[in-house]
Amino acid sequence: MTVTYFITGANRGVGFQLAKQISADSNNVVFATTRSLANATALKDLNRSNLHIIEYDVASPLETMKKALVDPLERYAPNGVDIIILNAGISKKAQRSILQTTEADLQEHYAVNAIGPVKVYQSLFPYWSKKVNPETAKKIIFVSSGAGFINNFYPFPTSHYGASKAALNHITRHIAFDHTSSELDHMKNSIIVPLNPGLVATDMAKEALETFDFEALGLQPITPEESASGIIKLVNGLEQKDSDTFFNYDGTKFSWTVTYFITGANRGIGFELAKQLSADSNNIVFATTRSLANATALKDLNRSNLHIIEYDVASPLETLKKALVEPLEKHAPNGVDVINQNAGIAKDSAKTILQTTEEEMKEHYTVNTIANPESAKKYIFMSSSVDLVHNYLPSLTSHYGSSKAALNFVARHVAFDHTSSDLDHIKNSIIASFNLGLVETDLTAIFLSKFKREDLPIPVSSAQESVNSILDIVQGLKERDNDPFINYDGVRPLGSLFVYISSL
Ligand SMILES: NC(=O)c1ccc[n+]([C@@H]2O[C@H](COP(=O)([O-])OP(=O)(O)OC[C@H]3O[C@@H](n4cnc5c(N)ncnc54)[C@H](OP(=O)(O)O)[C@@H]3O)[C@@H](O)[C@H]2O)c1
């Protein structure tokens, strides 16, 4: 049995490459649309009997669009359509601020990039839902854009274009949602996926490529050939569990939401982090506690996006892994974005090394250092300046300080390990160690009781103040910030240390 594709905006750019590469396999039937048959010379020149060109403007009325399909689809697709790729789109003079955007710009882009795909979906639905094809699941691929992200807003002006793609992203999610309640199994199991085709050197991207230094943002333009071959590989490999996921053309996933994992979140700084992050309902927050029974403060928050996990970082690795399976598979289908390794202890550490026992050292090393690092895009270790080896802070911190020094090394090694990862999003992940400053929590209570505030070298902050400044810093971390040691106030005291090491 053949697989039948329907691709919009296929006379040039990414759409043309998709039609060309997919129709190169004579088992496929490909419908390729163009706004004007007269301008579709590249498609016609392919001269392939399995490639059918249709004049179809997504800005025209729904009835006109439906009419354009009847003859070619009844003739060449008696079993209906399997895979729809909605690629047609426009971007005109979008590099401007919202103040400079006109109503006409907004209307035009909304009509083609958001309302257009809805009408394509509506006009094709009878053909797409027609019959089960044992060769493939039913799929709809929306060629969207990272410019339409709201949570992970791209930091350059895309104005009416970005707004229309944000609307498209919502539409794709709604279509995926609509199908979950379908009575037809092949519709219920259909796969709806929006994707970003990459920064592609096409007519559309010309203006943006001339205006912005994308390289400074770590973005390299790719060719339409590369984009299309990535999209085809991705589309072929899609499974039902991938539905409602935003993909990049190279198969990597973007999250709709940002998922945080915070250890030691039942009190102190960890609790404050969980509280503040889960206040934004776009975030998914996993908050761990050693004892569910004692996690009343977390439970009292009573938030549906906050998942509490019983998790003792001193327990064996296998136990830790087991504790994650059920909650993470259920509530984090796209994985974890930011891990905040916050759990830590400091028991009776204001003493000399001579006074320190082996048991104290082992206990602190187990909790503060060995805790299991999993891969994520951002990994924040809650460390402390008492652990600086080269810039040793002259204070009594004993087994606590040494366990945090070991933790700093682990953080740097994780950053180093990721530099050679085969996965781009892990290679580009951000690993940072934080010195929280002196924060008034249970952990510092004994230490603070031994000193007068005015004798301390730095001010004492509340958990809330500390978390406010950490969140500001974490949100601003960029790829180039990988592997820093950061103070609660944003200062990076180890800058000179790194120079020192490299000049050895
Ligand atoms: N290039 C990038 O870097 C980039 C990045 C992110 C997302 N995208 C998205 O990728 C898709 C393809 O972009 P591209 O770079 O290949 O653009 P392109 O080279 O400008 O091609 C756009 C295609 O869409 C068609 N189209 C425009 N308005 C239409 C309408 N009213 N009805 C039917 N077809 C229409 C065009 O047909 P005509 O030839 O008749 O105009 C053309 O075939 C777009 O959805 C775009 O938003 C591109």
UniProtKB/TrEMBL annotation:
<keyword id="KW-0521">NADP</keyword>
<dbReference type="InterPro" id="IPR002347">
    <property type="entry name" value="SDR_fam"/>
</dbReference>
<dbReference type="Pfam" id="PF00106">
    <property type="entry name" value="adh_short"/>
</dbReference>
<dbReference type="GO" id="GO:0016616">
    <property type="term" value="F:oxidoreductase activity, acting on the CH-OH group of donors, NAD or NADP as acceptor"/>
</dbReference>
<protein>
    <recommendedName>
        <fullName>NAD(P)-binding protein</fullName>
    </recommendedName>
</protein>
<dbReference type="InterPro" id="IPR036291">
    <property type="entry name" value="NAD(P)-bd_dom_sf"/>
</dbReference>
<dbReference type="InterPro" id="IPR020904">
    <property type="entry name" value="Sc_DH/Rdtase_CS"/>
</dbReference>
<dbReference type="InterPro" id="IPR052184">
    <property type="entry name" value="SDR_enzymes"/>
</dbReference>
